[in-house]
Batch of 3 targets.
Target 1
Amino acid sequence: MIDLRDDNSKNSSPAYGRRNDSTNVPVTSQRGLAPLSPYLNFDPSYLPATQPEFIFPEGAVKQRGRFELAFSQIGAACMLGAGVGGATGFYRGLKATTLAGQTGKLRRTQLINHMMKNGSSLANTLGVVTVMYSGFGVVLSWVRGTDDFLNTLAAATATGMLFKSTAGLRKCALGGGIGFGIASLYCLWNNREAISQLRHHSINPA
């Protein structure tokens, strides 16, 4: 029988067999199979596990800015409003149709109307508030050249005041106070670790 294999396959480099002794990495997919190409394998030591998963330019901030976050925040606010408003509308529709004694298709239609009306109304309200807040936050970050908790407090206060600006000075101030209070709770929650460390150092000074 004539051997039709290429002469080069007979004189292949001995460094690549069923195990590469230089890297101690097997070059076969399973036991008993023919050796794979050495280019399909690599030494895992060349891929250190301590490197970050994402590459950032030197000195870049490793988080998205307010402008990038605005889109996800607005979308999340609309979906949250639609969900909460739909659930509230369903509950109100159940009460209204039960009191009216409606059944069958008429009751289902009324339930859908209540859900759609309340869901769209709350989704629109939360979406508008989030657009205002994101706009103020982006402008303040651009003017001040930094993004910190002061921007969050100022943006939330201005949002509350603008949202209630057509209802009179008293409600305008009340809206600003509510926005400031919600933003303060948010900032305290985000910086709870730093606050606990400060409290620990004040109680037990070095």
Target 2
Amino acid sequence: MCGRFVQYEGMAVFMEELGPQLPLFGGYDAEPINRYNIAPTTRVQILHSTEAGVHVTPVKWGWAPFWAKGKRPDPINARIETVTAGKFFKQLWPAGRALVPSEGWYEWVKDPEDPKKKQPYFIRLKDQRPMFFGALAQARPGLEERDGDGFVIITASCDQGMVDIHDRRPLVLSPEQAREWLDPDLSPGQAEQIAKDHSRPESDFEWYPVGKAVGNVKNQGAQLLLPWRSEDD
């Protein structure tokens, strides 16, 4: 996963997709979020659980334990193959499970004739419904940004056709699995099973090339999702 995704619907749309049975603590803004080019280090609305219920909190994309700070940029992703056993994310796994609502993400494919050239693609569900990335987060409810808070998106390996776009992809959970992911009573073993065995299959997704304007993090707007035509660039 290359590190850009979208979150443009209002949070009410994502909550409706998850289902009314989710024990939400506090309200949320129903206005469209309108973010079409989310980049690392920016704050993103995520869902996470506390004893009081599920919270919607803006959290920085990127996280590292205190002992790794300053050595390199904070990771934005965590590989499912190592996240449950490695020491780097030990502080977050499994109690820091979170969800990142989204409508899709971008990947860049190298031109086989010129590796310096890359074509961006947008990947979404075929039914164009909202999706939920499995994530790990250090997050405390509230609008104030706190030192140490952040999140990483869990990634899995690709197979079938999607591997031609990239060899990694986010862990995308169905609404049912997403609700379970947020359940504080879920055991570590059950959480690991969801992460490793229940990512939505490649057959649920579609992808198409988009314009290269998405490469500039300052560019926003729904036009970034329009299919690319050679005369556009």
Target 3
Amino acid sequence: MPFFLAIDAGGSSTRATLVDHRGTCWGTGRAGPGNPVSSGAEKASHGHYEAIRYALHAAEPDSPEIAGLLIAMAGGSTRHSTGDFPEQLSARLLGLGLQLKPMIESDLLATYFSETCHLHGYALAVGTGAVAASIDGGALHRASDGLGWLLGDHGSGFWLGREAVRAAAADLDGGHRVTALTTAVLEHFGLISVPLTRASSDSRPAALQELLAAAYAIQPVELAQLAPAVFTTARAGDRVATTLLAEAGQLLLQTLSAVRPGDDEKSPVVLGGSILNAESSLLSSLLEAMPATTPVIRVHNGLAGAASMVLRQAGISVDEQILNRITDSLKKL
């Protein structure tokens, strides 16, 4: 019986599952960052390798015949963006006795197909990054944003984390709005005990100098780890954090509107990603903007969609029964 490996790779974590031709998932694994654009090919290929290793270890039979590997990731529809990642991953997998060439597809498609078999609709995924797309004939038709931390990802986890650090730096620099985000950011970087005042010989507060050094020492995408601090601070009533969430909601609506015509009120809209699943106010702002006739589907991750896609790539027709089997077996695992 042929088996397939499906992976949902993000900027923060990588999830893998082993699925058979009937849609039953036999094992799952989870590891670190898996996107070569944000983390580099070496680190990303290690994350994929570990997730696959865990999935195979958890599965039965012990030595399945693997007929294909599909990876869903941000930027997957832009093949050149992955660099030599596919080759590095293939080399690592030889250590598991697997000779596989990965197929790389968009995480938007994985998000979309995780809860629906409709071949026309829209998807918005908001995690470390943020991207929307229209789907036509089961393929990506048009995308919006998903341009990465430097050029886009407006309203994403990275965007929120970066804005939190900017707000804290402005607060410490003086003459700007005071915000509880400052304490949250300093705690995140382990700087909570650093003095907030200027020494007579310094032009800036010690805490601000230490924050600048710490923020510039990490990979920019790691600022996404501060997104939960924005949620928590906003719920506590901080105006700056609340304003950031409202702005993020508007940016995400603009991203979705760029691919979704205003007169299409009946095609499904799939919403997914760790940020939308974690922050109810962002999700509510999106839901309030949808017509009552629009089917809105929430997806917690794209692993089921990646499993659905690897079966489609193998020529297997994925209907509601197979999709339900994928999602049900994943829940049990």
